[in-house]
Amino acid sequence: MLDISPAEWTAILLSLRVAVIATLVATPFGIALAWLLARRDFWGKSVLDALVHLPLVLPPVVTGYLLLLTFGRRGLVGGFLADHLGIVFAFRWTGAALACGLMAFPLLVRPMRLSIEAIDRRLEQAAETLGATPFKVFFTVTLPLALPGVLAGMVLGFAKAIGEFGATITFVSNIPGETQTISSAIYSLIQTPDGDAAAGRLVIVSIVLALGALIAAEWFARRATARLHGN
Amino acid sequence: MLRVDIEKQLGEFSLSASFASEGRVIGLFGASGAGKTSLVNMIAGLLRPDRGTIVIDGETVDDSAAGIHVPTWRRRIGYVFQDARLFPHLNVAQNLDYGRRMNGLAPDPAQHKRVIELLDIGALQGRRPGKLSGGERQRVALGRALLSRPRLLLLDEPLGALDEARKLEILPYLVRLRDEANVPMVYVSHDVAELRQLATQIVMLKQGRVTSFGGVKVLT
Q1: Do residues A143 and A33 touch, judged by C-beta distance below 8 A?
Q2: Which of A9, A112, B19, B189 has the most other CB atoms within 10 Å of its CB?
Q3: Which value does ipTM take for this structure?
Q4: Are B128 and A140 an interchain contact pair (Cβ–Cβ within 8 Å)?
C-alpha cells in the first residue's frame, strides 16, 4: 500500500498536532464570541464581526506577515511573551498552530453563532424561572442545545487548520520536523526533482483526512440532532 | 401573599395594575391583549416595571423607588407557560429534577413521589418531550415547576394550547393541585368556566387596567 517514509510521517503527525491544538484552543474563544455576536448588542459589534471574518478575505500571506510583525521575536506581543514568559511563536510549531487557529477562526465561529441564534430563548427564560443563574442557563440549556453547531464549527475549523498553507509558511517558514506541515511538505516536494511520488502519497493522506473530517462532522451532527429531538 | 402595584409602558400599550391578595388561587381574567401575560412576567421578574412594587410572601421583589429588582432565578417562583417549554435535550425525569438541581436543594423523595402521583406522570419518566402529547407535556411542566419548591406558582393559560378534550383531561389535575399541593397560584385565563372551577379570587384586567377585584362572582 502507501509506503510512507519517516519524514512524511513527521509532516503528517505535525499537521495533526497543529490542527488539533489550534481547534481545541480556538473553540472556547469561538463559543464565547459566537454567543456575544448572537446575543448581545454593543457598540462596535459590526467592527468586531468584520474583524473575525478578516482572515477569510485577506490574502493569507498578509495574515502571515502581520503575525510575524506582531508575534515575531521583535514584534510587539512576541517580544513581550519571549522576554517575560518564555513563549516563542516564530518559527515554532506553536506558531503554526496560532496561524492555523486564526485562519480557521471565522469558519469555526459561524456555525456556532447560527446554532445559538436558532435556540428558542423562551427555554432560557423557563430555566431562569426554575432558579438557574445566567451562568447555569448557559451551561445547562444554551450550550447543550447549540452542540450540533459547536461540533460542526470545530470540524470545519479543524479541516481548515489542517490544510492551511499561506499564513503558516509566511509566519513560521517550512522547517522539517518543526513547522513543515503536510501542505508545506507537498509544496517543497513538487519543487524537488523526483519528489512526485512522495507528494502523491501526502496528497492521498490529505484527501483521506479531509473526507474523514467531513464524515465525522456529518455523524456528529446527526447524532446530536437526533438527541435533541428525542428520537 | 401577593401584592402588586405597578406601571409599565410597552410601546403604545400602558399597563397599570394594583391589587393585593391572600387568596389561594388568584384568577387573572381578561381578553387577549389585556396585559395578563405582561403582568405575570413582571411578577416572575422577566419584565421590569417602570414604577411600583411587587411583594411576594412578604419579600419585596420589585421596588422602583428603592431600586430593587430581584432577578428571576432568585424569586423562588414556578412558572407554567402556555407552550410548556420543556427542555428538548432532557428526558422527563431530568426535566422534573432541573429546578431542584439549579436551586441546590436536597432530594425529597416523598415530595417527588407525591407530585408524580398527583399528576400521573410516573410512566413518562424516561421519555423525551418530543414524544409526549400536548396534555402530557403540560402535566410534566406543572410537575417541573412544583418540584422546584416555589412559594408562588404562576400559570399562564396552561390549557390555552389544548383542545377541549385535553382541557377536560387536565382540569381535574389542576383542582387537585389547588387542594393538595399547598402552593398559592396565579392563574391566567380568558375562560370564565375554567376560572369558576379553579380560582378563589379574581382580578379582572381590561386594556391594561384592573376593572374589578373580588370573589369568583365578579365573573358574571
Answers
A1: no
A2: A112
A3: 0.93
A4: no
